[in-house]
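User: My advisor asked me to double-check a structure prediction for DUF3017 domain-containing protein before group meeting. I don't want to rely on an old file, so could you generate it fresh from this sequence?
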Amino acid sequence: MGLTVSQNTVEEAVAAKSHRPDEEPDPAPEGRESGVGDEAPGWLSQVPYFLVLSTMSAGIVIVAAAHFKRGPALIAGALMMAAVFRTLLPQEKLGMLAVRSRWVDIITLTGLAVLLIVLAWVAPQLSQ
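Assistant: Sure, here is a fresh prediction for DUF3017 domain-containing protein from the sequence you gave:
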């Protein structure tokens, strides 16, 4: 005795299963598979940190080259960039820039940047 199933019976069974009220709807938009391109790679959250770190490193190299006005100004710019990133970016996109609470980080970074700008302003220019 063989079991024969018509195409209509299969389609009705699939339609009934896909429209059950106790199941959650598929969160993936139409035309796109779930899990494909939903999340950025983990290293991408470190890009703001590496931008700040590279700018700060450039400032330290400039200070080492005896430019005591330009170097601290560049380091202050890196700190202000970190404060802007901390203000505008969400927590999961910050990487290692998120150390303490948002406002403590912003106040600390901005305060250090202002102090370095004052230092760059009052530092003597060495004649070469």
